[in-house]
Amino acid sequence: MRPAWTLAFSGKAHDTVKRHLFPGDGLEAAAILVCTRAPGPRQKLLVRDTVLVPYDACARQSDAITWSGAFLENAIDLGEAQKLCLILIHSHPGGLLGFSKKDDDSDRATLPSVFAAFGDLHGTAVMVPSGAVKARLYAPALTPMPVDLVTVAGDDISFFWDNGGDVPRPMAFTGAMTAELGRLSAVVIGASGTGSITLEQSGRLGFGRVTGIDFDRVETRNLNRILNATTDDAVKELLKTDVFARVMTLYRGEGVAVPVAASIATRNAVLEASQADVVLCCVDSHEGRQMADLIAAAFLMPLIDVGVVIPVRKTDSGFAIADVCGRVDYVQPGGATLMDREVYSAASLRAEYLRRVAPAAHQEEVEAGYIRGMAGQAPSVITLNMRAAAAGVNEFIARAYPYRLDHNRRYARTLFSLAACEEEYVCEDDFARAPNPILARGDQEPLLGLPALTASKRAAA
Questions:
Q1: 458 pLDDT exceeds 90?
Q2: Contacts from 214-219 at CB under 8 Å and sequence distance 24+?
Q3: Tell me, what's the pLDDT at 124?
Q4: What is the mean pLDDT of the chain?
Q5: What is the CATH number of the domain that holds 416?
Q6: Is residue 170 situated within a structural domain?
Q7: Of 259, 282, 283, 281, nearest to 272 (Cα)?
Q8: Among 53, 163, 332, 411, which is least packed, fewest CB within 10 Å?
Q9: Span 250-279, pLDDT tens digits
Q10: Residue at which a domain ends, from 161, 187, 205
Q11: HSE of 109, CA atoms in CB hemisphere, 13 A
Q12: Residues spanned by the domain of 138
């Protein structure tokens, strides 16, 4: 059963709160999470800011804590203007991943003052030394409602279930992993070369919901690299997303595959993507990667971006392969974005826009599809696509169900060269990162900070 309510942390926010709540003295500590919301229908709260209550402003014990209301007023000031949600979180150094009677009494005494200030939804949470979090929400009537899932997207990806307890993560490639995936959702942007393979893997792995987003239709020239597409599909010019959904339904049943026949740059596609737990980007456009970047940051989701290319060189007799290579980037909320990593730039976005809407205004370089420097309508790249798509999906597994011998932080980017038979890795710390104003933006309008996605403009159109 998929979660009704989710609380999402970036890895950095979770680490900041954990370090504060567990200073090593065995006493409880407190903080306040200021949260935005995802646009729904799935209910997701996104930790945007944290207010750390100073130790010297608290009466701290090993099993109880009281603290000054001044810091609650600071949090109210942060959240009131935009009607955000406050979650009061404290530590349980003894390891109880649950709420005590003292916690119940404290909630009933404290939360009415928050509701008197603003809002119709606030909550409380506890954290244990392992970093596991249990949370609950309240309406003004003060009837508690459990948060089904707490997610943390950092170097590792963690899922803390309300009914799961403080237990180790499931082991990779086991039935326990499959069972948990059945409660999670993946969105795949792009349903063609690497995208169709990533969709297939996501369905076979067992994700409970797999959303495929692509506006394009099947053509005869791309039958050699779209899994499950047929000549009849090409003749009928079926949507690529309908092909993936048709086949996935045959082996997973109804309700798992969600086809979205739209550009990822549209409001409807962004709203659908916001419902997922992980974003897998399999597009070949700079705009598509920018949108994936913004979506993952705004809704605090991990992003895995996959790219392949076959550069060629001219020889006296024609062309020769220069390399056969692929790239997998893992982007965590608050970390280095695809733009920080120069996967795209303002200049490349502008050039792509000009090629699309005003080709006469731009002298395009010789570049066609997968094979740079050599035109080809139906390149035979299915083996390269499969290699890259598998690396992308395995990157998610390595983060959520760690199996690497080294720390995942070392693998923010993976580059492979089939020509040189080499793999290279780039650490998260090797990338510079700029401030990200979209981080945990949630449902604030305009969506993703883009005026073109404003709800009123969509209604007017």
A1: no
A2: 214/189, 214/190, 214/239, 214/240, 214/241, 214/260, 214/261, 215/239, 215/261, 215/262, 215/263, 216/191, 216/192, 216/240, 218/243
A3: 98
A4: 93
A5: 3.40.50.720
A6: no
A7: 259
A8: 163
A9: 999 999 999 999 999 999 999 999 999 999
A10: 161
A11: 9
A12: 5-161
Beta-strand relationship, 185-189 and 278-281:
parallel
| Residue pair 384/310 in contact by the 8 Å Cβ criterion | yes
User: Which position has the higher pLDDT, 2 or 280?
Assistant: 280
The secondary structure element, H or E, covering residue 124 is strand 122-127
Q: How far apart are CA 361 and CA 12, in angstroms?
A: 43
CA atoms within 13 A on the CB side of 90: 30
Q: Is residue 414 part of a domain?
A: yes
112 pLDDT tier (thresholds 50, 70, 90): very high
Sign of CA pseudo-dihedral 227, 228, 230, 236: negative
Residue at 417 is within a domain: yes
Domain check: are 179 and 151 in the same one? no
Q: Which of 161, 183, 200 is the last residue of a domain?
A: 161
Assess contact for 420 and 323: CB atoms under 8 A. Answer: yes
393 shares a domain with 324: yes
Q: Is the pTM of this model over 0.85?
A: yes
Domain CATH code at residue 131:
3.40.140.10
List C-alpha distances in Å: 324 to 187, 190, 234.
27, 21, 28
Residue with the two structure tokens 């942060």: 78
Based on the structure, what is the number of domains in the chain? 2
Residues 300 and 240: their CA atoms lie apart, in Å, by: 28
Are 340 and 439 contained in the same domain? Answer: yes
Peptide bond connecting 446 to the previous residue in cis, omega within 30 degrees of 0: yes
In a domain, 168, yes or no: no
Q: What's the confidence (pLDDT) of residue 379? A: 76
Residue count (the chain): 461
| Residues 6+ away with beta carbon under 8 Å from 430 | 412
Q: Is the preceding peptide bond at 41 cis, omega within 30 degrees of 0?
A: yes
Please state, in angstroms and as integers, the Cα–Cα distance from residue 448 to each residue in 185, 275, 299, 336, 460, following that order: 21, 14, 9, 18, 19
Residue 302 token pair: 């991990």
